[in-house]
Amino acid sequence: METPLTEHIKQNKSPLGLIEYENAGGYRGMHKALKEMSPSDIISLIKSSNLMGRGGAGFPTGLKWSLVPKETSGSGLKYLIANADEMEPGTFKDRYLLEGNPHQLIAGMIIAAYAIQAQKAYIFIRWAYKKAEVIIQKAISEAYEAGYLGKNILGTGYDLDIYIHSSAGRYICGEETALINSLEGKRGIPRAKPPFPATSGLFGQPTVVNNVETLCWIPHIIEKGAEWFTKLSNTSEGGTKIYGVSGRVKKPGLWELPMGTTLREIIEEHAGGMQDGYKLRGIIPGGASTDFLTETHMDIKMDFASVRKAESRLGTGTMIILDDKTCPVAFIHNMIKFFAVESCGWCTPCREGLPWVQKILESFEEGTAKPDDIGILEFQTKYMGPGNTFCAHAPGAMEPLQSGLKYFCEDFIKHINEKHCPWR
Amino acid sequence: MCWQTWTDKKFTKNMLTEKEKQEIHEETKLYPYPGAACIDALKIVQNHRGWISDEAIEEIAAELDMSVEEVDSVATFYTRIYRKEVGRNVILVCDSISCMIMGYESVYKHISEKLSIHFGETTTDGRFTLLPITCLGDCDHAPALMINDDLHNNLSINSIDEILEKYQ
After folding, report:
1. pLDDT tens-digit map of A254-296
2. What structural domains and CATH numbers belong to chain A?
3. Closest Cα of chain A to B48: distance in Å?
């Protein structure tokens, strides 16, 4: 089984430097792209690979790039941004790629920037990822020294600079338009769409924002082709996926596996199953803003389409396990509190609705909830659902709540009837 | 406060050092207009002073050709910009879901009792400020916390005292 994204990442060892990475086959895709391919060749190839964005939404990467206009007005600049603002609770995959193989990301960014003809690129990195920031900065310096960044890259006449921007906190900055506002030095509030960033993004210029894992794929697809990429997968969605598991399992961690590996294989084989004395009750499949799955879903293939059929989302592919010794209401309360705190406050349903839901869930935990409260929670999942809010923040927050009410309804009722949390 | 009063203040105080101004100036070069470096400027001043006072907000506004209100709106939006004085060391305890499952609450309780402070408070000797933080992306080694720039993970009550000792 091939593991292109992680094969050069060794636990407790420094990442490969530029020369070591090149000796191991790195940067070949970049040489090929810049010397042998036109920007439109690259976009066509990525389109035909059907690479879907690994940040959570699964938008086709080639299509995103193709929306960038060839001619630009204004300053004439175009921008590429690597979204390394990983902050979705339960998600830790981009940290692994950033710390483990910085040159893979840089090679991917050079190709992506060349494909959309961007002259400037930013890595928007989470402030807490201090170690990753140092590693990436060193790798950027090496890339400049090798002539892979700066003026006239590989003698092609193409110029590119990459800068690091370390964030100042706030989950919402992972949303691409909020990220762009933040990079412009403003409050990280999402923008109205359209216009989409591809036509009017950073400083009003065409901009593409791609997740770290997505960008890391680019050099490999360029080097080995779309067919190779498709064949790595167990399903029609190509490639491998970095899956992760946290919670009360024997071996929490990350594994690069074929896209569409079953939930059962990931949890029972790779994560070693549940710790002794704990039983599995639910799975949040891809970060806090995805609907619960349960034991009945163990045989579904973890790709975007299959998880959607099970009424959830693949999201980031890093799972959180709910065990039988953790209260499901407390579990959901913790995530809703996160979303309430991280709401940017721009639109009313999110700013007012999330703290309201949080207070109701708190009353369940304190034993003061009333039977009507379940109805209010159900209403809120619709009221803050898609279409009623400015961005996907509140609808995302409602996903674990609506599925939690479906799968753990008895536990909610128990809190009301017993007037306390049965787990305390 | 009227605009005139703010502008008067801008020219009466002189708090930022030449070094701070120089560092801010370097950042503004990377952007099409100075205000785009607002977050960088706040970080620079916080790096030198530990937190962002009202006076700092006013002088950053003057440096970046922004209104005071605009700079303050940015400063108060971001969680890693402190608008109140903090201790010499800041403890950030992850309270997100994976750390909850793995028992951050007992870690928090132990630190809170040992230092006699709750979330949002600073010890009387100014040594520690204790704050909650959202997911640190180290979920497979939960529970986790950060002290200043250092990540500590796989925490247990037994390991905390030794970790705290490193920060005076």
Report:
1. 999 999 999 999 999 999 999 999 999 999 999 999 999 999 9
2. 18-231 (3.40.50.11540), 240-323 (3.10.20.600), 328-418 (1.20.1440.230)
3. 16
Q: Label residue B1 by pLDDT band (50, 70, 90).
A: very low
Band of residue A1 on the pLDDT scale cut at 50, 70, 90: confident
ipTM surpasses cut 0.90: yes
CA angle A370, A372, A377 (to 5 degrees): 105
- What's the rounded Cα separation, in Å, for the pair A247 and A274? 9
- Please provide the average confidence, as pLDDT, over all residues in chain A: 96
AA letter at A388: N
For residue B162, give how far its alpha carbon lies from the nearest alpha carbon of chain A (Å): 22
CB A267, CB A280: distance < 8 Å: yes
**What is the pTM assigned to this prediction?**
0.95
Nearest chain B Cα distance for residue A247, angstroms: 6
Determine whether the interchain pair B151/A130 forms a contact, defined as Cβ–Cβ distance below 8 Å.
yes
What residues contact residue B60 under an 8 Å CB cut-off, 6+ apart?
A: B16, B24, B38, B41, B42, B45, B66, B71
- Determine, for residues B100 and A334 on separate chains, whether the beta-carbon distance falls below 8 Å: yes
Note whether A161 contacts B: Cβ–Cβ < 8 A. Answer: no
Considering only CB atoms, which chain B residues are within 8 Å of A334? 95-97, 100
Q: Which domains does chain B have, with CATH numbers?
A: 3-77 (1.10.10), 89-165 (3.40.30.10)
Q: In chain B, which residues have their Cβ closer than 8 Å to the Cβ of A246?
A: 98, 101-102, 139-140, 142
A129 and B137 within 8 Å at the Cβ level: the answer is yes
> Chain B interface, mutation test: which of A162, A246, A255, A322, most B Cβ atoms within 10 Å?
A246
Asked if residue A367 has pLDDT above 70, the reply is yes
